[in-house]
Amino acid sequence: MRFAAPLLLALLATPAFAQDQTSEPVPTDCTSLFDNLGILNRDAQSEIEDTATGCAISNVYFGSSYSRFAIGKVTLEADDLFGAVAGNTRPAQLKLNIAGVRSSPDIDSPLNTYIMEMQQVPFELNLAYRWDATSGDFHLDDLSMRMPTVGSAVFQAELSEVRDMPAAIEEPTDYARGNVEKLTLTLDNRGLFTAVAAPILLSSLPYEEDPRPLIAAAQKAVIALIDARPEDQIDAPSKAVLARFVNTFPRPDGLYHFEITPIDAPVSLESLVAPTDDMAGLMELLARFNLSAEYKPLTVE
Question: Where is the signal peptide (predicted)?
């Protein structure tokens, strides 16, 4: 499932929004837009539909060989989609839904591929934003991953002073524009964090060492960092929730909601997403925000 971010990034970094108008025709319908993307593959079952607000593409593939994924449907809705493409700009509003995603390795046995797809629970990815280039207000309404049996993770953001967005990007940090007004993360975790996020976080640890002592030391350091913050910045109930989340790593099951807002001076999104490799850098970053956290246990159905 690590392909989720690359797929969203690839669709947002599509050449359709960064046309070399001297060498490529500007897409004027969904079929030509799909061909211009160059990142999704179709077969005899694929369908492309022009809708009133964008495009719908069904039964396509992303990646190749053992890293190929099947996608049931991609739905793209955007404010003046083809006008934005022709003008080499980003749409003022956009909604992207990628549904029915599952691993579908391109191997020599169609039967084995079918069985692998059959055994999986498909998941979906969502992106929705609204942007006023004149005021600079940017609302990230939904950046999420959802899987019916293991939960969901939803990230939202309110930004100011976003005066431009690149038409083409190479790294996710290329989108780091403007100042943070509020960031929220809602994690309905029934195994999603353990399956998706934890392996990524653990991948930086030494390959040939037992990770448990290193995890325990990191947990202790992070808890101390949280406890050191004043209560007007992180209140006692929020500290307890954060401690629970950290101490139950890598299996923090339950419904968590985290929210951060700058304390005084604006904080640029670029500074927030810049790598922080040491505890002093993390402490400095944490000191610039108020943080609240809420937790609800899983309900037994």
Answer: 1-18
